[in-house]
C-alpha cells in the first residue's frame, strides 16, 4: 500500500516482517546531514507476533531512511505525505546471521507501480549489475570502466526517458558520477560535468556522496600547488575562516561562494580527525563560520559539527561503551574506571591503522600497568576480527570487536568515529584528555612520557 495522505510532511511506514523477527525492535533512522553523516533515531516499534509494525517520520523532502533490526539493515526512499507498505523477507539461508557484521537486505514495497522511486532504484541497480558484473572472471581495466559508465548512461537515458521523478533522475546521474569518481576519471571531468554551474543538492543522498568523494582532500591538494601562505598556518596557527576562504578564491572551481563554503566544511570535518591539524583551531573556524554564513544548510551542518566537537572535546566526560571481547564476553569502558586509557579504532582493511598496532604493543610494554590500552576493531565481519587475533597472538591487550547485535549503540557510535581509524586518550578521572588523540606514530608517546615520566635506563658502567 502506497497512498498520498495529503497532510503536510507526514510519512508512515506500515510493515510486515518475516516471523523470524517477531518480538524484535525495529528502528527508523535518518541522517541529519551528509557531511557529518550523523545518524538520528526517528522512531522505533516492537515487531508483533504476526510480523506487523508501524513507524512514523516527519520530513519535507525526499530522502533515504534506514530500517534496522539488530544487525540487519535496509534502506527505503521516502517522500513527504505518503504511507508506505513494506515487507521484510525471511533471511537468506546462505548468509551467516550469527556473524555480527551489518547485513544489508532488500525490502519489498507493496502496492507500487514501475514509477515508484524504490522500484526505480531497484531497476537501476539491475541495469548496473548487468553491465559491471565480472564476466568469465575478467578484470575490467580503467578505460573499459569508463566505456561501461558511458554505456550505462545511454541505457538509462533511453530507459527512463518518460520518468518525471526528479529525485530518481538525479539518483541515476550521480550514481554514474560516483562510478566515474571511483575509477579516477579526472578532476576536471568530474567537477565540470557534475558540480560546476549546477545547484547544490544538500538533501540528495547520491549527490552528496559524490560531492564528498570528489572533494575529499581537495584543500590539501590545492594548497600544495600554491606558494606563500600555507594551509597549516591558516588553520592551525591563525584559525581564521576569512583567511581560509580568501586563500581558496583563486581556485578555478570555487568561484561560487556557496560551493566554496561547502568544500571548506567538508574538508574541515575531515581535518578534525587528522593528526596534522589542531582540533581547537578547527572548532574556532567552524564557530566563526557558523556565525557568518548566510546559507541555512551550511549553518545546519556547522551546528552538527559543533555539537559533535562539544560532546567529544578534551575535558568532557568520556562516553562509556560496550564491545565484544576476545573470549566472546561483553567488555565495558567503565570496567577500567580510575585508570588512564588509550583507545584506538582500527580495521583489518585499513593498512594505516594496522601499522599502528605493533607501536601500541611497544607502548604497552613500556608503560606497563600505568595505561590501559583498548583497541576496537571496526571490521564488518566478526570472522576477520577473529582471524586477526589468531594471526597476532602476541598482541595480548584488550582488542575488542565493535559490533554486537545486543547493542543499541556501539563504541563507534558513541565516539562519533566516521572512518576506520581514530584515537582517544582518557584520564584517570574519566575525562577526555586528548580528543582526538595522537596516534602512536604521531607522538602520543611524548604525552605519556610527560605524564608518567618513566625511569630512564642508566648507561653507567656496572649499573643496571
Jot down its keywords:
single chain, 464 residues, alpha+beta, Immunoglobulin-like, 4 domains, 5-stranded mixed beta sheet, 17 strands, globular, disordered C terminus
Task: Describe this structure as you would to a colleague.
With 464 residues, the chain is an alpha+beta fold. The chain has 4 domains: 111 residues, Immunoglobulin-like, CATH 2.60.40; 94 residues, no CATH class; 95 residues, no CATH class; 131 residues, Glutaredoxin, CATH 3.40.30.10. The C terminus is likely disordered.
Topology:
Layout lengths: L1 E3 L5 E8 L7 E7 L7 E8 L5 E7 L4 E7 L2 E7 L3 E7 L14 E2 L3 E2 L7 H16 L9 H18 L6 H17 L4 H8 L10 H11 L2 H7 L6 H8 L2 H8 L8 H15 L7 H14 L3 H17 L9 E3 L5 E3 L7 E7 L4 H17 L3 E7 L4 H10 L6 E4 L9 H4 L7 E5 L5 E3 L9 H9 L12
Parallel strand pairs: 2-8, 7-9, 13-14, 14-15
Antiparallel strand pairs: 1-8, 2-5, 3-4, 3-6, 6-7, 8-10, 11-12, 13-16, 16-17
Helix pairs in contact: 1-2, 1-3, 2-3, 3-5, 9-11, 10-11
